[in-house]
């Protein structure tokens, strides 16, 4: 079996497979440094290089390529290979009459909070990056954001609920009236409130169809995401007319959920929501089915967002619903090449990497970087570049990204923190597939009307 097929089958990459896959993805110009997963894509062959070529720009991306959160990084190396093919990154950024070759360094957080923070310090203090990216849940993003803000390095974040990101930077802040502004850090993604507003319309439809009890079981862990959801979900769910049956906070890595499941069954909860780590959900959901807790509709966050995580659970996740912030039917295009969402998804699948992945939207990290760097006079001046990322306002592959005003009116009932652009979610459901064993279908577009409905919403259990 080829390395690529191993990845498509959802197996976790070993170190050796990862090394070969990285080298193949980046070609002869790539260098893998050490066992820590640092990959350097060198921009040494700059077309048109002359006496105006000067010290290059270094971008560093800290993301989980291995470990429990590896599903979040499944598309990332493919995206870097795509970015390297664009004229802007291949030929270098032209700034003030000079051409700056681009180096991209990829750092694997291994799904570790501690490692993410350590890698940020390495990237800033040893590798002298000009800009950092951090993606994929608070477990990676928040640690990097803290380091970047304290060490004065521009950072673009994605795929982390904005409330968790904001409260990490400003522990005394108030998400309902967020006025504090990070100097060096911005984020594009959705918030916990958008997930509540995404899930409620789906609950309403199943309630109308099956005349359910309007009781929602909620299992939120004792971590950054869980704490944010505990603060945001209850008032929104109550306002929608549902009783919120929330378990006590549980530690990440819990393996026995019997008492929680018994509570949900006793309270006759017909709906279920949570925001766990992927392995925790697998254990929780398997036990729920074994012990007879079969909610009419399960709407989960942070898990089952990507194909490999869904495939790993097989038929157990038929008709479990979640959210997505990017689908192939969205009418957005790359600011670098003009490619559409549909073209990107088709190319990803034709590359042998399996079903399209919502984190193709991470492509826009590089769109933001280019948009910001081309407006500065000195790309190595961190203060100038930080100011530039806060002024980015583009229609990107991930959608409208306006870091000046925070989005396109999607921010209700809470407003975002300064430096946050909201990419609202669509409601999706894993249904039995035709081309793939499970296929993500768009079943609700209340918050994202541009996403085409592709299937009817089905009960998780009847």
Structure description:
The chain has an eight-stranded mixed beta sheet with strand order 1-2-6-3-7-8-9-17, sandwiched between helices. A four-stranded parallel beta sheet has the order 11-10-12-13, covered by helices on one side. It has a three-stranded antiparallel beta sheet with strand order 14-18-19. The N terminus is likely disordered. It has two domains: 283 residues, Rossmann fold (3-Layer(aba) Sandwich); 151 residues, Rossmann fold, CATH 3.40.50. It is of the alpha/beta class. 36% of the residues lie in helices and 19% in strands. The protein is globular, with a radius of gyration of 22 Å. The two termini are 40 Å apart.
Task: Show the helix and strand layout.
Blueprint: H1 3-8, H2 15-26, E1 30-33, E2 38-41, E3 57-63, H3 76-85, H4 87-91, E4 93-95, E5 98-100, E6 102-108, H5 113-126, E7 131-135, H6 138-151, E8 155-158, H7 162-169, E9 185-189, H8 192-210, E10 215-219, H9 224-239, E11 243-246, H10 258-266, E12 271-274, H11 278-290, E13 297-300, H12 307-313, E14 321-324, H13 341-353, H14 363-373, H15 382-389, E15 393-396, E16 399-402, E17 420-422, E18 426-432, E19 438-444
Parallel strand pairs: 3-6, 3-7, 7-8, 8-9, 9-17, 10-11, 10-12, 12-13
Antiparallel strand pairs: 1-2, 2-6, 4-5, 14-18, 15-16, 18-19
Helix pairs in contact: 5-6, 6-7, 8-9
